[in-house]
């Protein structure tokens, strides 16, 4: 009898573990995992626990979007705050730590529109507050990501092209100061950021000042 009880208990544990594994890898018809679902429905309080449980940060849905893409496009500030907390918590981690590697990788994943999470944030689709975008950019800069390898698919626009197009002057100052090489980096049409058609006088002044400073 004791042996039978033990077998039953082991079976329950096995089934529970199997169910947990299925939840971790399972996705719905839109190829969303539970982390996507949390960001779709603004269930921000589940993001931290889900990430700790191993839900894939970098998994993409049917539109090529990660959960962070979804949070940004939906304009769910609370969800973005949770991601920013994750970014902050991983700053002290070794480069080879799985969480650190996945968060860095997150910045290089494109959705089917050809945009990374930083591109979508700068575009302002979800009206994300500027301080949040600035924190995302600051993390990317501190992580020394290769911004020349983060061009928009289809146009070849750099992050600075995009910043100029959307007149994000504060972000332009950050990028020009920290990544001056983007000032001269052309898109596929051969246009550098100062060639952007809709550039404002203030933005033009920021870029010209940065170009002058980089020569001295």
From TrEMBL:
The source's domain of life comes to: Eukaryota
Q: Which Gene3D superfamilies match?
A: Ankyrin repeat-containing domain
**InterPro entries documented for this protein:** Ankyrin_rpt (IPR002110), Ankyrin_rpt-contain_sf (IPR036770)
Q: What is this protein called?
A: Uncharacterized protein
Q: Which gene name belongs to this protein?
A: 105261618
